[in-house]
From TrEMBL:
Protein name: VWFA domain-containing protein
Transmembrane regions: 389-414
InterPro entries: CLCR, VWF_A, vWFA_dom_sf
PROSITE patterns referenced in this protein's UniProt entry, alphabetically: VWFA (PS50234)
The organism of origin for this protein: Winogradskya humida
Leader sequence segment: 1-20
Keywords: Membrane, Signal, Transmembrane, Transmembrane helix
Amino acid sequence: MGIAGLIAISSLLGAGPAQAREPGEQAEPPRVELVLDVSGSMRAADIDGETRIAVAKRAFNEVVDALPETTYLGIRVLGATYPGDNKKTGCKDTQQIVEVGPVDRNAAKDAIAGLKPTGFTPVGLALREAAKDLGDSGSVRRIVLITDGEDTCTPPDPCAVARELAAQGTKLVVDTLGLAPDEKTRKQLVCISTATGGTFTAAQSQEELTDRVKQLVDRAAVPPPVAPAAVTGAEDCQSAPLLAPGVYTDREKIGEHRYYRVPVQSGQELRASVSVALDRQVSRDYGVLMKAATADGRELVRGSDAGSGRADVLSAGLRWSGDEEPSPQASDGADDDDQPAVTTDVCLIVSNSFASNTAASAPGMPLELSIDVVDASHAPDAPGLGRGWLLLLVLGLAGLVAGVLAGWLTRWWVATWREN
């Protein structure tokens, strides 16, 4: 059974592999929502002598003018309408002022022009609602959050919300931009962006803010050529999904083991790797382990990676050849070339040794699994050496010749020494 057969099996029993976009294939438009903090703190006049909201408005206008025609844009604000002190009411203050869709530049600028710094900072709620605004379609979905302070309305905690959003799929990214952020704000924004595979940037001027937002919007317009397929690993090998060669995504909790199966024929070689993104603070001295085993639990090979301190991604990989598994048909001494190909279901096991103070109910950390099955790369055979009695004969002859030469050289050296 060839690669085409494996893919056919996968379509019936497990997830399909990620596929590159065919040339000329029409991609869905990227969808971007700009989320702007309009809370009371945006009145501070500490960016080039201007208020933060004035700088943000001008940056927004420049970004809107430069938007690619193919990008669907939406704008959501938080803390923009409620001026009172009732926290319960103020922490619900988030509205979408421009629906996600083809760019209407005049409408977007008009919506931004009337904004005035007003109330609280419900970042977590705004992120959750922005994800709903973007829907579940589009080649890329991106939230660009611009704020000058940390959330004042927890719960929901913005970091927890970001992890929830990341756990729902692989196409939603949250990038964060901090306007003159303090250390607490910076840590929160880094946590939000890291959880979704996004980026954090501190902006100290209008030029920095404008340039960075343009970069993020432009990046959304260029989706990756391969979108990993979502798969859910099992708790044991018997119930694990059967995977064909491809790229897959899953999520793994701290201390969890995830099982997957890959069929490998004799004469083929399995090459697999896994990368786990650390989307939260973890304790020192940790690692990621990937093992290949038989269905009955016998380990075949393993690969591991360990870290201590800050690391954004940990990876591990392994290689295993189907020829390393003895074929039952070959036990009668027949030539291996005459035997039919034997397929072995190899269990891939991904585990970790992380420890964290994050609540146990938090979604698992994102992992990416790459699988390939290729023709085995055999080492060249020696010309008959190492096979039974022939090896012993060669070694014996070599020892005899070496002994004769050593004896002759010794006698020559003694005779020469006596003459002198």
